[in-house]
Amino acid sequence: MKKILFLLALYAGSFYQSQTNRFIYELQYRKDASEEYRQNLMNLDISPKSVKFYDKKFADYDSINKNANASVSRYSTKTDQVIERAPNSFKNKWYRDFFDYFVVSTNDEMKWKLLQETQEYNGYKLQKATTDFGGRTWNAWFSNEVNIKEGPYKFRGLPGLIFILEDTDKNFIYKLISNKKLNTEFDTKEFVETHYGKAAIPISNEKFNKYVEDIYENPTRMFSENIKNGQKATFKNESIESVEELNKKKSMLQNGIKSRYIYIEKDKEPAFKSK
């Protein structure tokens, strides 16, 4: 099969100071085998200064905003997989969007086991490797023909670019589908480093989970304050005028919070996810 993705010019040593190499992954993910897959396209942007992984729609909306010369379109992550790190580093900044905007610093060094098993993918010979991370066992297929030791989300450190990544239950599946070279370092400050001007608040994962769990236990709080102050609350375009009406929505709100994200790192998910 003809190679469709890469040229020798994409090798890590060939970066110019202001370039970005963008690798686009198709992500399929689900809670377990009883659910249908959700699907997202994800960008892995690699430049001399940084490695960033995020929902592709962020860049799509950013292009719309730049053409309009205004922030007319906004997007919130559907994956909770917005990541930034320095090149050749396992230390990540994990940006979390949940009403406010947060950043969790993590050290995610992985120990890979290289296997002899190989497969062909779009003209590339891929080799298999395995690791345990985030409460799951993962299989990665990488190519040492592309000398970039990166991959989707926090996964990196193999002797080549990761083309395919999946956990053994196949609840998360990443496949590299295309790439492009950008002549400049792509500016993500509107949607990675900040959320459309809202600065990221440094927080530990434990405190972030406590914050989310508190909202889960009392999800009507932010609406009930408005009602107590004589204002109306609007939920899904429905006007709510009393606290009693609002309390009837509690279960619906909790289900929305519980299902908002499927946590890739099972060992870091909030306590209510296991209920």
How is the topology of this model organized?
Layout: E1 20-29, E2 38-46, E3 51-55, H1 56-68, E4 82-85, E5 91-98, E6 100-107, E7 113-121, E8 124-133, E9 136-143, E10 161-167, E11 172-182, H2 189-193, E12 194-195, E13 198-199, E14 201-202, H3 205-217, H4 221-228, E15 233-235, E16 238-240, H5 243-247, H6 250-260
Parallel strand pairs: 6-14
Antiparallel strand pairs: 1-2, 1-11, 2-3, 3-4, 4-5, 5-6, 7-8, 8-9, 9-10, 10-11, 12-13, 15-16
Task: Explain what this protein looks like in three dimensions.
By secondary structure, the protein is of the alpha+beta class. It contains 6 helices and 16 strands. The protein has helices at 56-68, 189-193, 205-217, 221-228, 243-247, 250-260; strands spanning 20-29, 38-46, 51-55, 82-85, 91-98, 100-107, 113-121, 124-133, 136-143, 161-167, 172-182, 194-195, 198-199, 201-202, 233-235, 238-240. The strands form 3 sheets. Strands 7-8-9-10-11-1-2-3-4-5-6-14 form a 12-stranded mixed β-sheet. It has a two-stranded antiparallel sheet with strand order 12-13. Strands 15-16 form a two-stranded antiparallel sheet. Strand 8 (124-133) and strand 9 form a beta hairpin. It starts with 19 loop residues before the first strand and ends in a 15-residue tail after the last helix.
